[in-house]
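Now produce a polypeptide, keeping tokens residue-aligned:
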Amino acid sequence: MNVQKKGKNGNWRIQGIVFALFIIASSISWGQAYKASTEIGVYGGGSYYIGDLNPNKHFVNSKPGFGLVYRYNLSTRHSLRATAFYGNVYGDDAEGKTAAQLNRNLNFKSSIMELAVGYEINLFKYYIKDMRDPITPYFFYQLAYTRINPMTDYSGNDIALQPLGTEGQGTSASTKNNYSLNQITIPLGIGLKFNLCRRVAMSFEYGIRKTFTDYLDDVSGNYVDSDVLRGENGPLAAELADRSLEGSGGMNRGNPNNKDWYSFYGMMITFKPFKKDICEFNQSF
């Protein structure tokens, strides 16, 4: 069963890469008459996650996020983009609405470091240097390396969860190995960008990230035998694996059928570099 899931995820990644390369190659031919241009900039906004501790509420528990942006404009409709984003995500069963979630009593937080490359498509003709075509909606898709590190608050201390194997990873209580803190993700999103003046633009953007892990929050499957976990991974692992207020009662610890997601949303300021007069309004080109 596990082998089949890995195969599906591998196909997802291969198909996405092939499709992206095809679109990029096509765009280069579309933009042959266009003089390519470069933009660099900064990003500021928020980040949040969707998973076992927050199944469906968007924008809740948002934490600050920031980053750097690079665009290589192939034409007035197509751009390559590279981004480096950093943020944090958070979830707490104490804020849940169901009795089962409140009883489970788990919490986590994780830093998110994301390095991504991909493709951006403008819906309208747009050029950062041209105030005659100053605004466009756009959408983007990327391939990203993401570093996660789920932690929990325990007696006022932040405890890293992955080394503890809270669902029996690496012990005789489970067939699973410890999940990786290094993940491949697929950022997808939409935005609106507009020129503030020649060479300077602002963008408002929302993007959600498809992950291939269910352990961004360290919660996925079943409770395991606490005695085995205590004996092989230590008493702290057993303590943090089951923090239920009234006992787990045979319930699953999480839902293994749904992978976790996270999002970045916010504002970008980009500019076309290598000119002394950055903000020009009336000069022709």
In short: The chain has one domain: 2-271.
